[in-house]
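Q: Second attempt. The first request was missing the SMILES, so the protein and S-adenosylmethionine are both included now.
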Amino acid sequence: MNVKPTSSDRERVEQAVRNCYSTWGERYYDEYYKSDAAYPPVHTDIVRTLLQNAGARTLLDAGCGPASMLRDLVDLGLNLYGFDLTPEMITEARRVLSVHGIASDRIWTGSVLERSSFLGAPDGQKDYDAGICFGVLPHVRDGSDATVIGNFMTVVRPGGLVAIEARNELFSLFTLNRYSSGLFKNRLIDSDGLLAAAGDERDALERALDDLDKRFRMDLPPVRKGYAEEPGYDEVLSRTHNPFEMRALAESLGLVDVRVLFYHFHALPPMFESAVPKLFRRASIAMEDPEDWRGHFLASAFILVGRVQ
Ligand SMILES: C[S@@+](CC[C@H](N)C(=O)[O-])C[C@H]1O[C@@H](n2cnc3c(N)ncnc32)[C@H](O)[C@@H]1O
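A: Got both inputs this time. The predicted holo structure:
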């Protein structure tokens, strides 16, 4: 059920997210975009192609973090703008972009849930050719996705491009771990309805539902903790999204030419990566094809792409 969150819910979530990311400002890009340990940032190339095909000249990155994506797109010669919830991310983004001659006021503090944040450009820029949003949707509460898409639609010009990334809920069917159990029990099986209808089979059904978890590695994946006292990624709200539902939502809000592009493919369920790490990485990268239907299950992320009418 999509219940619109209250402002105090929102403030609580945003404060936890700010805490989580407060220690990542200087480290984030090195760890997630440049490290050999991390999967290569294949999404940057997808965005680059989308921007080039759209002929974009101005770009707003909502939830830009330490300008991780923006710094890698500098060579396109776009007018770049961005905002983020976490002050430490903004400090780092300004520092990095200043090296490329981008004024610090092109990057500001704000929330994707606040329309005024999308209007924060110092020069009053508000008819962007393109708006992107990566790594942010997991951190907004259920019921707020439409607000984020709607906010983009007020600042991206008619015909302009919107590209919003989300974690793929359906990937949980492939992981065979705790996430799979969650998908089965919370999204696929109507546990309450079945229990109510079970009659004298209720005890047997309860045992069957317990038994289901034995099919999955419930100890995986490990919970990601913070570096110090702050909460880690899995300790703050970090939702996954359903690509079918997101596509329908975008269309219902009036975006056109809506597509779902998948990335970060997994050639095997991730629990097997440690057995064949080099092959796993090589084969997964080779599978990257944003339009491959297998992405619905093998890719851990997707980009919801559409145009404003
Ligand atoms: C996983 S990082 C991604 C950063 C960058 N977009 C990238 O792709 O590398 C998530 C970022 O979203 C920001 N964020 C989370 N909730 C937000 C919100 N409601 N409004 C704006 N930014 C938000 C965090 O501060 C953090 O910098």
